[in-house]
Amino acid sequence: MLKALSWGPMHGFEITSWLEERSGGRLTVFDAALLQSLHRMEERKLIAADWGVTENGRRARYYRLTPAGRAWLRTESSSLVDHVEALVTILNARTAES
Questions:
Q1: Nearest-angstrom CA–CA distance, 3 and 6
Q2: What is the spatial distance between Cα 27 and Cα 5, in angstroms, rounded to a whole number?
Q3: Where are the alpha helices (H) located in the chain, listed in sequence order?
Q4: φ and ψ of 63, to 5 deg
Q5: Strand, helix or coil at 64?
Q6: pLDDT by residue (tens digit) across 55-94?
Q7: What is the largest CA-CA distance in the chain?
Q8: Less Cβ around it within 10 Å: N or C end of the chain?
Q9: Nearest to residue 15, comparing CAs of 29, 26, 25?
Q10: The pTM is what?
């Protein structure tokens, strides 16, 4: 979600759509999980929110990254990429029979 918000302020549906599109449909985001995550990140001051109006004329909360959120995203992204690379290395290891 923080990566989505690094592109600019978005409301919940936009965040969900961004994540699902970028994952090629392999990632499903459930509304309740999205809202819980957004509230936790807001409490941790990683994001901030303001009320706005969507293109459809509906009222919605627009979330944006804070400087702390941008820094956390950089740090955690680097760590996650390192972990994923380690897992790929392990999963691609040849077995003794190979």
A1: 5
A2: 17
A3: 2-5, 12-22, 31-43, 67-91
A4: -100, 145
A5: strand
A6: 999 999 999 999 999 999 999 999 999 999 999 999 999 8
A7: 62
A8: C
A9: 29
A10: 0.83
Strand 47-53 and strand 59-65: the pairing is antiparallel
3-class SS of residue 55 = coil
- The answer to whether 81 touches 91, Cβ cutoff 8 Å, is no
pLDDT digits 0-9 by tens, 10-45: 999 999 999 999 999 999 999 999 999 999 999 999
Task: State both tokens at 73.
Answer: 């995203």
User: Tokens representing 59?
Assistant: 């009222």
Beta-carbon count within 10 A of 1 CB? 22
Q: How far apart are CA 41 and CA 10, in angstroms?
A: 14
